[in-house]
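Note to self: keep these together.
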Amino acid sequence: MALIKCTECGKEISDKAASCPHCGSPTVSSEQAKKLKEEEIRKTQEGCLLWGCGLPAVLIIGVLLAVLLISLFDSYEPNNPNLSPGVNEFDRCVKRQKAKGLSTDSCWNNLRE
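Structure:
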């Protein structure tokens, strides 16, 4: 007969006992306890990989992507000669239509042609 620690209360009990006489928790053999501990460690490590450790990396990538997109859209200049002529024409069309109080749908149609 060997003494083992109860998984619930931590007191020493016989490995032959069906439950802990102190707290009533069912006993676990040392082999079962080892397997439970290994599974608990594995789950903790998986949780770290999925949420705890990977989350900062996802946040950093997200922030970098947002900065990149903002810098791309912030540098847009409507009268930039390096842009395709259609883009400048589209901007002029939108301004004309808005000044007349008309819909800008025709500008989209002209751009597609």
